[in-house]
Amino acid sequence: MAQYMFLLFDSEEWYDNVTPEEWQQAMKLHGAFMEAVEKAGAQVLGGEALERSSTASTVRQREGAEPLVTDGPFIETKEALGGYYVIEARDLDQALELAKLCPSGTVEVRPVMPTGADAQPPA
Amino acid sequence: MTRQPGTPTDVPSSAYPAPSAVEVARVVERAHRESWSTVLASVVRLTRDLDLAEDCTQDAFVRALRSWPDEIPSNPGGWLTTVARRLALDRMRRETNLRRKLPLLVEDPAGPDDEDQPTDPLRLVFTCCHPALARDSQVALTLRLLCGLTTREVAADLLISEPTAAARITRAKKKIAAASIPYRIPADEELPTRLDAVLTVVHLVYTAGHVAAGPELTRADLTGRAVELARLLVRLIPDEPEPQALLGLLLMTEARGDARVSEDGELVLLADQDRSRWDTPMLAEGVSRATAALKRGQGRFALQAAVAGLHVTAPSWEKTEWRQVVRMYDAMMVSWPTPIVALNRAAAHSLVPGADLEAVLSELDALGNEPALKSYAYLPAARADVLARLGRLQEAADAYRQAVTLTANEAERRFLTQRLAGLPE
């Protein structure tokens, strides 16, 4: 089994006009997604929805100066990072199949690097 | 009698004279072409480590050069697999405590680990052409792992620098290991899309050799590799029509190779080729493979092979059944509506006897806005041809000039320049 982080990117305009019904519907879709993951024999290890990117703050380390704090996300994109899952799957093929079921416009699938006591630095 | 292959103390076991060095070199070379992927694939299943498996496979070939002068084994591929796997087992035993650079490949739940699993190379094929790898990497990795080319040879074949080739191969191997791209044959329901990616890579290898950038018109080593890869796929996936169709398409193109270049190295268009110079047996095989594939489906390569078949079975360029060719492109447009298919369709349409050239010209003009065709020399070349036939010579000349600046191939450039010079005053 391998672990993957699913990074969910979507347009944030949706938040501006969302009705309570639409919100409930979206939550249901995520519930259904998590059920599908378990049904496939994979596992949801974690995941959260994130507040809008306009609420983000970025802290940047600087050589010889205090860290710089700025308002907003590190990278401004049209489709912003809006949530994530950590999924344990058999291999990339299964992870990609599950990402196709994920209720999000764009999903970046990143393998999680092993960092346990016996882990080796990446090649 | 059992012999330990590869030991330097091998003694010829037969009364026949030892094979000559030339003969050994030839047999090893042939085994490299025919068995590299089979040997490597078998070792990968054992080691689950691409680099280690490559090293051991390479070592087995080195040992063959050393020990085959005594006696050439009756089954060179089997000999190489046995030796490579033994070398791998030795190293795995010795290196259990050494740290690995990359995690092990993900495999199906272990089946019987016998040497000879005929579908092994297919795992390698699908791993090299996994959709999560960049197309460039798929091509480089396929040449490296399936054809057994060195990084330097991959670089030379793809006309890229050696560091670029090395970077593409290393990046792909790292992603396979770190992202757990499985060493597996896809399930039946995934097969059509996954197979399409594989066929695209093999076709790309062929095209890279067929319209080579630079001074030569073709690179026979690369086109030959592509034909071998297509043969491998047909052998491994005999039940699917598309690998057959691709092989047929490549053979029909390859068979015209000699006639495509004149004695002084100039490009000769299909229209002007001396059809008696075509390789008849190769054409016949291509046509029969294409026909067999077409009976079982109208996939992308089946339709392309059908077009090639209409060309090679026509008595002349003029007597080609252009209406049928257009029909095949129409069928392609339904499932693969790409600008290049549309361009080919328009070009074929212009050759149908009595075709409305003005209508063809508007078809071609409409394609002028396609980003995919922006730097594609065939579009202005096709326009130039139609414009010349309509008597709009000034515009034809402009279009030829545009095509000349777009082509990266010297022979094509000379050809287009001649067409330009040949326009009536």
TrEMBL record, chain A:
InterPro entries (alphabetical): Dimeric_a/b-barrel, YCII
Domain YCII-related, first and last residues per copy: 4-114
Alphabetical list of SUPFAM superfamilies matching this protein: Dimeric alpha+beta barrel (SSF54909)
Domain of life: Bacteria
Gene3D superfamilies on file: Dimeric alpha+beta barrel (3.30.70.1060)
Family, similarity comment: Belongs to the YciI family.
Name of this chain's protein: YCII-related domain-containing protein
Species: Kribbella turkmenica
